Amino acid sequence: MNIGDKIKEQRLKKELTQEQLSELLNVSRSTVSSWEVGRNYPDLETIVAISDLFGISLDNLLREDMEMTKDLSKKMRWNNYYKRILVVIGILSLIYVGFNGKLRMDEQRYLKNLTAHSWKQDDYRYSGSYALEEGGVLYSTYVMEVGFNPIPLTEHNPWVIARKDKLVVKVKEGNKRNVVISKANDPKVKYDATVEVDETGNLINSDPSWSDEKEQSLKAYLKKYQKEYVELLRETASKRKEIINE
Predict the structure, then answer these.
(1) Distance between CA 121 and CA 126 in Å, rounded?
(2) Is there a contact between 115 and 132 (Cβ–Cβ < 8 Å)?
(3) What predicted TM-score, i.e. pTM, was given to this entire model?
(4) Could you read off the pLDDT of 178-233 as tens digits, one per residue?
(5) CB contact set of 110 (below 8 Å; sequence gap of 6+)
(6) What does the domain layout of the chain look like in residue ranges?
(7) CA atoms of 169 and 179, how far apart (whole Å)
(8) Yes or no: is domain 3-64 CATH 1.10.260.40?
(9) Which of 69, 72, 82, 152 has the most CB atoms at less than 10 Å from its CB?
C-alpha cells in the first residue's frame, strides 16, 4: 500500500472529506486528491503533520512505499546540499564585507595622509589622481575608489610614480622599485622597458624575451644614472610610506 492509499484510508476512518483534510493540512483539496491517486507526494513537513493528525508513526506511513521513500531521501539530500551552499555563500559574504570594510578604512587613511602632506587632487588626468611637486620632482599617485568590483586588496594599495627631468621611477606594493626607461622621456634611449631594481639601482631580473643587446643597453642606462635613480627611488619610497602610513 502506498502513502496515497494510506492517507485515503486514514481520512475515511476519521470520516473526513478531502476538503476537510485539506483545510486541516493547509493545502488545497486538489492536492489531497493528487496524493490519494498517486500523482505526487506530500513534502516532508506535511508527512509529519499527517502522521500527527492520524496518530500513526512515520515508519508505518512510509513503509512499503519505496518510490516515496526514494523521493523523500532525494529531497533530503538536496536540502543538505542547499544548506551547504547557503553556508558557503554566507561565509563568502562575510569575507567580502570584511575586506570591503578594510579597503574603505584604508582609502580614508590614504586620503587623509595625502592632504596632510600637501598632495593636490589631479582630476584633469583621471578621478582619484593626486600630485605633489617638490625639489624639482613631480610625484603622482592614484587612490582607487572602493566599490563592488572583486579587485584584489593589493591593487588598492597606492603606487607612487616620480619624474625628474628624463628619469622616471615608481614604487609599488611591498616597496618594489621600478625604473621606467622610455624613448618618450629620453630620445637617446634605444629600448623601452620597465625594470625592477634593487636598493642600489641594479637590475634584479632579466626578461627572457630580451635580446642580449637590449639587456646590455638597459643595464648600461641604469649604470649611467645609477646615483640619480637610487636617490629618486629613495625619495619616492619615502613619499609612498607617508601615504600608506605603515
Answers:
(1) 10
(2) no
(3) 0.60
(4) 999 999 999 999 999 999 999 999 999 889 999 999 999 999 999 999 999 999 99
(5) 143, 158, 243, 244
(6) 3-64, 113-244
(7) 4
(8) yes
(9) 72
